[in-house]
TrEMBL record:
It is a peripheral membrane protein. InterPro entries: Ferrochelatase, Ferrochelatase_AS, Ferrochelatase_C, Ferrochelatase_N. SUPFAM superfamilies: Chelatase. It catalyses: heme b + 2 H(+) = protoporphyrin IX + Fe(2+). This is Ferrochelatase. It comes from Gossypium stocksii. Keywords: Chloroplast, Heme biosynthesis, Iron, Lyase, Plastid, Porphyrin biosynthesis. Its EC number is 4.98.1.1. It comes from the Eukaryota. It holds the Pfam family Ferrochelatase.
Length: 388
């Protein structure tokens, strides 16, 4: 079994018996997003109520919900404007549903008789609903969860925590063998799919060799990486290294740079604790300076000043289009770039339902099957390995 490297081979050689004995479930987990403008405030409230997104000192945990409510009410008007600018809601549910229904994984997973479910962390259909109402009803016998391309405490870690909470208290779920794909940024199929998209977009410029490839990643507070062991930054950097290596192998030798998104910084700064978990820092950023987020920050003005004339933006930390690609990058960054002397602008689309990517994700699911274990066992392993 350990030698099976592609899903087709795996299905052919290893798994004909699987379908007869197992009922496989695949839960596609995502952040979720407001479907209309009325959803924005309660969605934000769910997001900020997550102790993996806003980490309060133990003594102040009781403030998590009221604080989330307050922050969501304060941020809602501006955030509604941003969602309005991309059509009045988030595309995440539609895209994630599409991933589940995509032809390629269906073909591979159908042979394994897999049921594909969608569960969101902060909005409908919540992970809790998918698990309690669908997965339990279907009495599946094995569950695989592909989570996010790179591991962050704020995304993957938070989703695993919800999963553990639900599974620990249920007789059937606590015994269900589960395999969590904690990251997949290093998979060849994923790297090749991004490289394909970059090559396609570069060819649309007049002088492709002069384009700066600008990787744009979501930010997280530095304290997550330095104090809590979040591997996110390392994984982002390694992911870019692997993409550039793949491009080089294809003869593409463009310059590249990485920056963490900036307007995200403005929003987080106003509402997050500083490194010392000091309560007095809350919402008093003007007095104490902003929360440190991963650097380098996005600085398009500086790139313009340095003489960059052509730039291809590549969103790197999320596999679907969402508000930060469609509004922050396509509108905010593009405008600023053009005003800063960058004359030619392009953007690589998020992979979404690209068939090479979806096929690779299905491969990852199939390869993860042999390592499925009841979550109570996985929890022990997670403790030992400190979230990596
Ligand atoms: C790699 C992906 C993401 C990381 C890391 C992440 C961390 C993080 N996010 C916030 C605050 C917000 N996130 C919001 C929405 C949102 N975030 C991600 C991804 C990551 N977040 C996605 C895919 C989405 C959904 C977007 C959509 O289309 O609906 C929001 C609301 C929207 C916005 O204002 O941008 C907030 C606020 C924090 C504080 C954080 C780490 C500490
Ligand atoms: Fe976020
Ligand atoms: Fe964000």
């Amino acid at each position: 079994m350990g030698n099976c490297t592609s899903s087709e081979k795996f299905v052919q050689e290893c798994c004909y018996t699987h379908a007869a004995t197992e009922k496989l479930g695949v839960l596609l987990v995502n952040i979720g997003g407001p479907e209309n403008l009325n959803d924005v405030q309660p969605f934000l409230c769910n997001l900020f109520a997550d102790p993996d997104v806003i980490r309060l000192p133990k003594l102040f945990k009781f403030l998590q919900r009221p604080l989330a409510k307050l922050i969501s009410i304060l941020l809602a008007p501006k955030t509604k404007q941003r969602y309005a600018a991309i059509g009045g809601g988030s595309p995440l549910r539609r895209i994630t549903d599409g991933t589940g229904k995509n032809e390629n994984p269906s073909k591979i997973l159908r042979q394994l008789h897999a049921n594909v479910y969608v569960g969101m962390r902060y909005w409908y259909p919540f992970m809790e609903e998918a698990i309690q109402q669908q997965i339990k009803r279907d009495r599946i016998t094995k569950l695989v969860l592909p989570l996010f391309p790179q591991f962050s405490i704020t995304t993957t870690g938070s989703s695993i925590r919800v999963l553990q909470r639900i599974f620990m208290h249920d007789a059937y779920l606590s015994r269900l063998p589960v395999s969590i794909i904690r990251f997949w940024y290093q998979r060849q199929g994923y790297i090749r799919s991004i490289a394909d998209s970059i090559v396609t977009q570069l060819s649309k410029f007049q002088k492709p060799e002069e384009i700066l490839i600008f990787f744009s990643a979501h930010g997280v507070p530095v304290s997550y990486v330095e104090n809590a062991g979040d591997p996110y930054k390392d994984q982002i950097e390694e992911c870019i290294y692997l993409i550039m290596r793949e491009l080089k192998a294809r003869g593409v030798r463009n310059d590249h740079t990485l920056a963490y998104q900036v307007s995200f910084r403005a929003r987080v700064s106003a509402f997050t604790w500083n490194n010392n978990d000091n309560l007095s820092m809350l919402a008093l950023q003007s007095r104490v300076g902003p929360v440190q987020l991963l650097k380098p920050y996005t600085n398009l003005v500086e790139l313009g000043r340095k003489g960059v004339k052509s730039l291809l933006a590549v969103p790197i930390s999320f596999e679907s289009e969402h508000i930060e690609t469609l509004e922050e990058i396509d509108m905010g960054y593009k405008d600023l770039a053009l005003k800063s002397g960058i004359e030619n602008w392009g953007r690589v689309a998020a992979l979404g339902c690209t068939s090479s990517f979806i096929t690779d994700l299905a491969d990852a699911v199939v390869e993860a099957l042999p390592s499925a274990k009841a979550l109570s066992i996985l929890r022990e392993t997670a403790k030992e390995s400190d979230c990596r």
